[in-house]
Amino acid sequence: MSSQDIPEENLPAAQETTLDKVTGADEKHPFADPGLPPHEHRIQDIDERAAKRSERTVALLFTVSMLATIGFIASFVAFPADKSIYVFPIGHISALNFSLGLTLGVALFAIGAGAVHWARTLMSDVEVADERHPIEASPEVKSKVLDDFRQGAKESALGRRKLIRNTMLGALTLVPLSGVVLLRDLGPLPETKLRHTAWRRGKLLVNMNTNQPMRPSDVAVGSLTFAKPEGLEEHDEEFQNEIAKAALMLVRLQPDDIKDKKELEWSHEGIVAYSKICTHVGCPISLYEQQTHHVLCPCHQSTFDLSDGARVIFGPAGHALPQLRIGVNADGYLEALGDFEEPVGPAFWERG
Fold first, then answer.
1. Do 202 and 322 sit in the same domain of this protein?
2. Range of the domain at 24
3. Could you give the angle at the alpha carbon of 75 between the alpha carbons of 109 and 239, nearest 5°?
4. Is the pTM of this model over 0.85?
5. Which terminus of the chain has fewer CB atoms gathered within 10 Å of its CB, N or C?
6. Helix, strand, or coil here: 245?
7. Transmembrane region positions (predicted)?
């Protein structure tokens, strides 16, 4: 097909002429400014009843956020950490984690949805074109920004629409409380748990290796034996937490070698029972010197004298190992005569 067969209006020259007529482009300005479309008013701009409905919707979303935040805080109190629930189709999950995630998600979503709905239906939506300006702000620009801010604040009707203002402030005030409550996730409150162990009066001393109750004859002079409380089994859910406080080491000394009077009274035929947990950072003590009666922590070399109340003679440990008072029951087995009189392991601020 030759150029003579192409309709005249489809030729390039004809297209350019037509485009120039439509857009107003010329040689100096090849791309004409299309301008802005005419502004279309929203229904909220012309109907106060519609504006009130939007206001109530925004206030409702902020109120939902406040209620969800309160629910977030209440979840910490209502659900124990080990409680699980079935949620379809997820399955069994932690009730605490599920409630915290759900309430916090609702609280944040409601604030965001309320702010977006407020901006789209009640704030001014007039498009303003502004010329580009240098990066540095001149006094005129600063003045213009402040004027625009005041104008925007005026158009937001924050002062006039008190229901939105008050519910928004309430939602924004309560949401940070979620972060304060989250501090609980740093760890459970210790209460008095660090002051007590599984040892009680009458609890038998069970050999950690044989899992059998111990008699005085099972502990030879110069030997180091590890024990646990009767009834504490490795398959128990809380075994690791309990053994970390109740782990015990037994050493049999000659009664004449024991220098501390209290240590001698709390022993049985020269058998002394001390916490196995180092008082520096909680490492298990496992090294014993028969000649000196010293035990050594392998982590930071804290050394304790078991013949003198397990006092610290070397290393960074802050205080002596706690001693457990022991005796023998009617069947001839070693038993505890109570719990440790002081907390085991490293020092902590609640010790006073």
1. yes
2. 1-35
3. 130
4. no
5. C
6. helix
7. 58-79, 85-113
